[in-house]
Amino acid sequence: MGQLIYGAIVSLDGYIADRDGNFDWAEPDEEAHAFINEQQKPVGTYLYGRRMYETMAVWETDTSLAEHSSVMRDFAQVWRAAEKIVYSTTLAQPSTARTRVERSFDPEAVRELKAASEADLTVAGPGLAAHAVRRGLVDELQVYLVPAVVGGGTPYLPNDVRLDLELRDERRFAAGMVHLRYGVRN
After folding, report:
1. How far is CA 87 from CA 30, 76, 92, in A?
2. Do residues 126 and 153 make contact, with C-beta atoms less than 8 angstroms apart?
3. Where do the domains of the chain lie, and which CATH numbers do they carry?
4. What's the pLDDT band for 63 if we cut at 50, 70, 90?
5. Does residue 66 surpass a pLDDT of 90?
6. Rounded CA gap, 25 and 91, in Å?
7. Whole-structure pTM over 0.90, yes or no?
8. Distance separating alpha carbons of residues 166 and 136, to the nearest angstrom
9. In angstroms, rounded to a whole number, what is the distance separating the alpha carbons of residues 125 and 156?
10. Which is nearest to 124 in space by CA: 78, 174, 86?
11. Residue-wise pLDDT tens digits, 84-111
12. Is-contact 79 56, C-beta < 8 A?
């Protein structure tokens, strides 16, 4: 059975993007990016909202990204190898391989997907992740905490949910980013 993981790069004050939608402050350095790559390798399926999918699709549609460094090339390969499910009422068809579009988020279908999966799954995009968190589908939170305060924007977690968590792992990076991995207690 696969675990559903919600991970994101987050400001110290809990945002994944600032008030203007920018997340340029969140770019990981080589050390952190290599670690993120290792965390993503066991993932078999990415669950995305449309906007997050369109942000991430460049790892397949813009081949020049992989030319920047070996770490970025590694991430592009990992991303392309995984299945992607995009939940959208407006996306006509995906721009990447190994991708399908679902018109609505069905919690029971996600439970079945987790149960049938031999690999872990991730959910990305704060709106879609909020649905998964509220429905009790998320098994693990992975926070890549950036030493920046952005003062508002798109929150990492919904405000109307309580989660009891258990710290499973933490790692500090030389540039100041900290990775925190929490299991959700049921």
Report:
1. 31, 22, 11
2. no
3. 4-184 (3.40.430.10)
4. confident
5. no
6. 28
7. yes
8. 15
9. 9
10. 86
11. 999 999 999 999 999 999 999 999 999 9
12. yes
